[in-house]
Amino acid sequence: MPYLVELLLFLAPFAAYGLWRKLNPHHEPSTVVLVLAGLGVALMLAGAVWFGLSRSMKPGTAYVPAHLEGEHIEPGHPEPRR
């Protein structure tokens, strides 16, 4: 079921554009809309790159997944490679 929701969320913008094209067959998207869409895509990509670079581990480290230590959970963390 969660995959169906994800698929519907992915397809929603395409369906909205198709509906808009069907209701306005002789109108093209304005330049302002295209520029704003391009800026949105550029901001999304810049945010994804920033997030990936800010959350990455340093070279020479290995990720140790979360595990039980006695009665408490030790969160995952990076450690130097052995």
What does this entry look like structurally?
The chain is α+β, with helices and mostly antiparallel strands and 82 residues long. Helices cover 56% and strands 17% of the residues. The protein is built from 2 helices and 4 strands, in the order ααββββ. Keywords: Membrane, Transmembrane, Transmembrane helix. InterPro entries: DUF6111 (IPR046093). The chain crosses the membrane at residues 32-53.
Number of H- or I-type helical stretches: 2
Helix % is 55-70%
Terminal CA distance: 42 Å
The largest beta-sheet arranges its strands as 1-4
Any low-confidence stretches, pLDDT <50, length ≥5? none
Mean pLDDT rating: 92
Q: Give, in order, the helices and strands.
A: HHEEEE
User: What gyration radius follows from the Cα positions, in whole Å?
Assistant: 22 Å
Most strands sheet: 2 strands, antiparallel
Strand content: 15-25%
Q: Looking at the structure, what is the overall shape?
A: elongated
Number of E strands = 4
Class based on secondary structure composition and strand pairing: alpha+beta
InterPro entries: DUF6111 (IPR046093)
Pfam families: DUF6111
Keywords: Membrane, Transmembrane, Transmembrane helix
